[in-house]
Amino acid sequence: MARPHIEFVQAQALPWETGVLPGAAGELQCKRLSMDSETGACSVLLRYPAGWQRAGLVHLAAAYEFFVLDGELEINGQIYGLDCYGYLPAGFNFRSTTSRAGAVVLAFFDAHPSPTLGQGEMAEDPNLAAVPYVNLHDLPWSTEGIDPDVSRGRYMAHKRLRHNPATGDTTFVLEGGAHSHAEGWQEKELRHPCVEEMYLLSGDITGPQGVIRGGGYFWRPPDIWHGPFVSRMGYLGVFRFLGGHHVNIWSEEKRTSSLNPQYNPILPDELKAIAAKPVEIPNPF
Ligand SMILES: [Fe+2]
How close is the Cα of 285 to the center of ligand 1, in Å? Predict the structure, then answer.
């Protein structure tokens, strides 16, 4: 089944599990954010223990797209530290993977990541080319291409990490300023003809489903009305648009927003008990 609408769950509420991924990655502790039960595509948090290492040529049946949240990971001699990103397409040859100090990685697989020993072949499609290594701290912030109807009256900037012009698939980090809301706390809702996915790294995004904090995650299928969103302290998140091109379609009617909505997440049955109550995030006092 295609991935269900999740909006939203805090990763802090999810259990660490093993055996979620196939092969050697099955040893790694994993938090399942969302998973497509037909294709095996999934978004997960992976925890590499200190001293983890795997050598020997292996390739996966899925692209491995990842963002380092904590610690440090090494793949084929490339060190990925804090806030580093990579997109390694299906067929990429992993010769060695190690984590000397341990790592927690936000990982996206676009199919079941079954491993095969030996040499792999990556597709020749340039739109699926590897993004071998990006350190986010080396990329400048940009406001280019942000819909002025979305950013009106608020600070927003992004860093694009990957874009497939054929499919529209896009990955970027988005930074939004504190005290973000529309004039009069009234704004139209939005929808897009593609999936929107987000993992919040820090700050808050507040909308009709509640206050999303660092560690908050949503998977929103295409054409679901959402928002309006506001932010009290600002935010930084990893976003993806998938399975179509990102277009903003606005509702006719405006909706009122506030900084303290009820907790009312949209959850599939398997997450209802886990996310029955909002996760308590320590206050800064
Ligand atoms: Fe959206």
Answer: 32
Under 8 Å between Cβ of 193 and 245: yes
Q: Any bridge partners for residue 117, and if so which?
A: 58
The backbone region for 244, taken as left when phi is positive above 0, alpha when psi lies in -120 to 50, beta otherwise, is left
H or E element, residue 46: strand 42-48
* pLDDT tens digits for range 49-81: 999 999 899 999 999 999 999 999 999 999 999
How far is the centre of ligand 1, averaged over its atoms, from the C-alpha of 152 (Å)? 15
Asked if the bond preceding 228 is cis, omega within 30° of 0, the reply is yes
What is the distance in A from the centroid of ligand 1 to the CA of 227?
Answer: 8
Q: Find the 87 Cα to ligand 1 centroid distance in Å.
A: 23
Domains of the chain, with CATH numbers? 9-138 (2.60.120.10), 148-272 (2.60.120.10)
User: How is residue 48 written in tokens?
Assistant: 């590499």
pLDDT score at 153: 85
The token pair at 262 is 């009820």
Q: What is the pLDDT of residues 135-186, one digit of tens each?
A: 999 999 999 999 998 988 899 999 999 999 999 999 999 999 999 999 999 9
What DSSP letter does each residue of 59-80 carry, written as one string?
EESS-EEEEEEEE-EEETTEEE
pTM comes to 0.97
